[in-house]
Amino acid sequence: MPLTDKFGRAITDLRISITDRCNYKCVYCRTGNEGALYGDLPFADYLRMARVLVGMGVTKIRLTGGEPLLRKGVVEFVRELAKLNAPNGNGRGDPLDIALTTNGHLLADLAQPLKNAGLTRVTVSMDAVDPDRFARITRVPNGYDHVLAGIRAARRAGLWPLKVNCVLMRGFNEDQIIPFGMFAREEGVTVRFIEFMPLEEGRTWSPDTVVTLDEILARMGEYRPLVEIPRGRSETARRYRFDDGVGEIGIIAPVSHPFCGHCSRIRITSDGKIRTCLFSVWDHDLHAQMRRGASDDELAEFIREVVQKKEERHHIGEADFVPASRTMVHIGG
Asked: 308: domain CATH number?
């Protein structure tokens, strides 16, 4: 029986945070003072959770953090995940779509081993294409060269489509829009701009800090015309191609153009809690069920009950908005 919520949305995408540790301190995410707040679980526990959810209809798994490449054994974990088959109705199953989101700092040496293990694709977080600006945002000196090397290694390894995510924040990097358009064309990657959301540790978000989808399109149009690309209902990004067919950008606009109505995602935090929305104000402790000795069938029933509580939408910018109970780095993107 497919896993669906009370609004009829099929849950097919699972995001697993395998650590909330990170080697960057990006200004829109971390205060620079807090470290990891929650423990990591053994990979065997994440694997069991994934196996149960794949049996319930999940077809895509994305590994996140923190920074997932900080976890020793991540290549072997991907190899085990790749042995799972997503249900397709013919009795054999299809290979899982296994993705990973990383800041790219450690990716250069791991891209090919991850591909060999069964990773399908990778998304790299990168918030400026200017090395000095990059260092100010991440508060890590000389990080830009590491990330660029990681992007190029992933491209050589065939981790495709290769996406580069840029969180835009007014006053920090909104002048990087056109440079990123040029980067997409020159490096052969898809650049995705993300509207800044109220998920940072410092809780300093305000609507004025958001660079919206419409503003991004207008700014990029000063460089080259864009043509919108058709997209799937549950895709988070609106996609655009440059008029000459060279280069693609996407815009994820949860603030100005919410896409909650077709959400197909749930998340598992590094300490084994289910979150039904990025902006949930509570967690559901799946790992506690495992510690109590629950069978796989009992875990599946617990998951079904939790998914029925999935929120219809977030309330960013509304008078009744309540911040999420965890910040992004402690949830997993």
From this structure: 3.20.20.70
